[in-house]
Amino acid sequence: MSDKRKRGVRKYDAPAGGWGALKAVGHALQDQHTVVEGGRTLLHANQPDGFDCPGCAWPDPKHTSSFEFCENGAKAVAWEATSKRATPELFAAHTVTELLTWSDHQLEDAGRLTAPMAFDRATDRYLPISWDEAFARTAQALNALDHPDQAEFYASGRASNEAAFLYQLLGRRFGTNNFPDCSNMCHEPTSVGLPDSIGLGKGSVTLEDFDHADLILSFGHNPGTNHPRMMATLRDAARRGAGILVFNPLKERALERFASPQDPVEMATFTSTEIASRYYQPTLGGDAALVQGMMKALIAWDIEALAAGRPPILDHAFIAEHTLGFDALAADLAGQDWANLERTSGLPRSQIEEAARTYAEAKAVILCYGMGLTQHRNASSTVQQLVNLLLLRGNIGRPGAGICPLRGHSNVQGDRTVGVWEKPTEAFLSAMDGVFGFQSPRKHGHTVVEAIAAMERGESRVFLGLGGNFAVAAPDPLRTFAAMRNLKLSVHVATKLNRTHLLIGDGALLLPCLGRTELDHQATGRQAVTVEDSMSMVHASRGLNPPASPDLKSEIAIVAGIGKATFGATDPVDWDALVADYDRIRELIAAVLPKLFADYNAKIRVPGGFRLPVAPSDRVWTTPSGKAHFLTYAVTGADPRQGDPEVLLLTTLRSHDQYNTTIYGQDDRYRGVFGRRDVVFAHKDDLAARGLKDGDAIDLLAAFDASGERAVRRFTAIARDLPRGCLAAYYPETNGLVVLDDHDQRSGTPAYKSVPVRLRAAL
Ligand SMILES: Nc1nc2c(c(=O)[nH]1)N[C@H]1C(S)=C(S)[C@@H](COP(=O)(O)OP(=O)(O)OC[C@H]3O[C@@H](n4cnc5c(=O)[nH]c(N)nc54)[C@H](O)[C@@H]3O)O[C@H]1N2
Ligand SMILES: Nc1nc2c(c(=O)[nH]1)N[C@H]1C(S)=C(S)[C@@H](COP(=O)(O)OP(=O)(O)OC[C@H]3O[C@@H](n4cnc5c(=O)[nH]c(N)nc54)[C@H](O)[C@@H]3O)O[C@H]1N2
Ligand SMILES: [Mo]
Question: Are 635 and 378 in contact (CB under 8 A)?
């Protein structure tokens, strides 16, 4: 079938970026009715006196004075600074049952929430409630629990350090470590895998390192859409002749060619820059085998070189001084069979060796990775293989070299730093106890998957959500939606309405908060909050827009309101004082974490902020041995296809027009999809093998689900250049295919990027 007849899908040949990106900003502003306000607002994104862009966690260049253009940052800002409002009248006009029939796009497009609301079972509606009453009801539900572990304190990664710190104080003061957070669905394999390797679960590079790298390895991320400001960095690197090797089963346009909207010449002449010097397409989940193959080749060449008296391939001095475990890794790799590595990675040995050769010839290498790496069954161990590869040639802790996990939410890293963590360290808890004078709970809490299971069993009774769209982001709506409906009370701190708010057990509260872009005035005046980006830079963020409604409270004021109501006015924590002046919260953060945040308030008053200490950047390894560790690949769990050749693996991704569960629009420009999201990309031979072709209506079924209920129906098959056996489709529409128990054993991160499915003609 020709692309013309297949409505809404065509080939996208132009470079990413360029005029299309500029045009899209205009549309986003118009669509959200933010043309005038929005334009002014945008100029303050990521400026020293402005707010931190809520779009992503990529750092800001130190020396920018001009506005850094980013289409998707503009969309995120426009979506928050919209003039649309979801008022009490909207809730009066529609029952919850009715709202549940709306699409995810329609729900959020209703606009900003304006007043606190409580669910009323008799009318099946959300009705207005006073703030005091809302806090009192939350406190009552918490205090009525038999045990603090019956509460779940979920957080999404947009909350500031101050809000997140107060939130974990609330939960621990209450007596639980149940802090499931979006990180559990995102970069948890980084937080779990990296500490065993290098002592810290964070990236080691700074933005300046990219100026000094002569090779960048890019695994499983799509920066043209999800970290657009990174494109400027990649483009600069490509232009100065640095190599960029991309490993991605899908051909992502921005990683092939990019035209910078900030470059007048490229814009005027319709030229662009080639990004990837070489593009490899491994199979889904094939990255660990591919990296193992590269290391196997490097070690074999090193042995040959030494025997022949040539310069070595590996950095033996670094390995001897800084690492443990090399011999065990080398022995393990020597025992690996090339045929097996080729099959598991989906790449021929020749390509793996070619990549290894390029790596061996580079002097300074940065390795970047995203969700394509972390959302798999053995992801924590795969992350450790990436580190092994860098350690072999001392590519960590020196200029132009290191590991660069691309974080998702703009403050997801900061939230973890200040204590939103279900597995806190003893050091953190005893510091909390010392500062606040109460005993924090020691028992580790629930991840997202564990929280859902506990809610399902009826063990967890109260759910608090500091932002996010928990139930839609999570796997397995069949179980997750039912688990939400099992609760006594759910309390949602949110800017916009979403489906999670509509999945109600006995009761629900909707508490509307200020967004990043808005002025936050408290008793002592205008407040700033702080955030930490992907490269451990902490800086202030100040909103400038008038609040979407006079009834909004800051996240900090809401968390403190719940705290005061729960623990009473005589509580040793002076919740009101913390709301009055956020400097006081920062003083407490610095008291609990003095090594990271000493002089916090002074440091954030310096434009650009400060970098937290990152030991691996200085070749200091805070592992028990004091060394960095080579770790062999630990395969846990069965083959997701369970040996069934009929089963395909599906990866679930973001389109260019969404922010996680927030669907801005129906287009995915760089993948050539327009006006729709109900598509699945497949290899034409996998379609043909099932009697299907491009454009056919298909159903996808979870491969090993006896119930037959985990399915998506009547999607359209699109033939694309991706490896045999692999499919790709959009998240969250396909989350119904992800089984709750299918996750990385160590981190609990769902295997969203290798979902075993069956594909057949639509019934
Ligand atoms: N505009 C916008 N910005 C965002 C977000 C958003 O939704 N919209 N989300 C934010 C968040 S929370 C996050 S975590 C990040 C996500 O940013 P990304 O990590 O880029 O997320 P995905 O869209 O899931 O894309 C994953 C990429 O990995 C590839 N991939 C899939 N499976 C595999 C695999 O097995 N191996 C390899 N090598 N590659 C694979 C896919 O083809 C795709 O290019 O972006 C953040 N920024
Ligand atoms: N199949 C599949 N599932 C996935 C993924 C995938 O790649 N594939 N990715 C996973 C990843 S990486 C992540 S991070 C999760 C995302 O999971 P979440 O972080 O839970 O989801 P979001 O869609 O980012 O949350 C959007 C909601 O946040 C609220 N919000 C927005 N701004 C603010 C604010 O400033 N304050 C407050 N309080 N609320 C605000 C709005 O109400 C909005 O509806 O999804 C995961 N789920
Ligand atoms: Mo994420």
Answer: yes
